[in-house]
Give the backbone structure.
Amino acid sequence: TGMASFGEGKDVIWLDNVGCQGKEARLADCHQTDGRALVWGGSNCMHLEDAGVLCQPPAMGHPQREPEEGETAKEGAIKLVGGDNSWEGNVEIFHKGSWGAVCDTKWSDEDARVVCASLGYGGGRAKVDSF
């Protein structure tokens, strides 16, 4: 394992061993790679293993709606942090009132496609362990 592609997070690591099929509407709808339900907060990862994505850039505009001032994120919401633009970065997911990271253990292009599609982008690929 190298270091997180877009820098290391600081908050809780919510998910590990995510195993999306690529067709789910949200990352929170996926299962673990062994087929079991997602385990929230049960990760043994460190932030140098934060999962990242490179989404297909939009043809025009910005598909991801920015939250209004004071607006609270919804359970399972996704945001990308640390990238040079809005369509790339480490994945953070909102759970039980706080944002947290996703570990890159078994992180795949299928997982990245679900993340990118849920943010309104056409496609995406996994970005892990870059220096």
Notes: The chain has a mean pLDDT of 86.
